[in-house]
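Input.
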Amino acid sequence: MKHFIGPNNPMRAQFEPRAGYHARHFTWSFEDGVGTVTLSRPERKNPLTFDSYAELRDLFQALKFANDVKVVVVTGAGGNFCSGGDVHEIIGPLTKMTMPEMLEFTRMTGDLVKTMRNCPQPIVGAIDGICAGAGAMMALACDLRYGTPASRTAFLFTRVGLAGADMGACALLPRVIGQGRASELLFSGRAMTATEGLAWGFFNALHDSADLLGAATQMARDLAAGPTFAHAMTKTMLQQEWAMTIEQAIEAEAQAQAICMQTQDFRRAYEAFAAKQKPVFGGD
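Output.
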């Protein structure tokens, strides 16, 4: 759970700001509490490599301790989101690896999804064009997804002779679009159109390509200006309650809400309401 650590708190040094982070295998920018990850190999439709998998995993892990980053936007350069694992830099070398080496790789890719789901910040995906394989899983790991009419999302693992069960696909995709639709996509490997993605709940909205990043960033800024501790609690509950009974979930939410009622943001919201003003949240 993400807690606000004030500048005078002796633990502050342990909660490293990420605003000055310099990415090596993608681009990173930071403004108004929003960090933006841009997959940036547009000439190849932004494929992932061993190095970019690892750096993305490490970034999202580190975001647990970053008080300055309130929301994250993930997007791709050049009109595409991500074409998946690089055929020449990943698929080719994998065919020459031993089974233990392959398992280390598949665990690393799964760790990327786990760190995205476990980081406290809401993640907003801005998804244009090709979104395939591991790229589709990165999109699925986002909390909100915005697409364009050109978006094509394919969990194409079976097209390369692999199971549709990859990086958590069989757990996450049915939760978002339903078991039957997920089964069809994971068995066939076909691309889900933007229209299907919107109708099935994969996309929250569609925008023209020229407006996509702006719309996603505006949503991120709106969230960053909100009660960020409460947002982190919401993300935690959404993640954890799939493994709970209804009775357990209701009790967990009772405890979560009681914790949120102890925050300064809860007090600020009441005082603003009483004064007929818009609350200004501080995340604490």
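DSSP finds eleven helices and nine strands in the chain.
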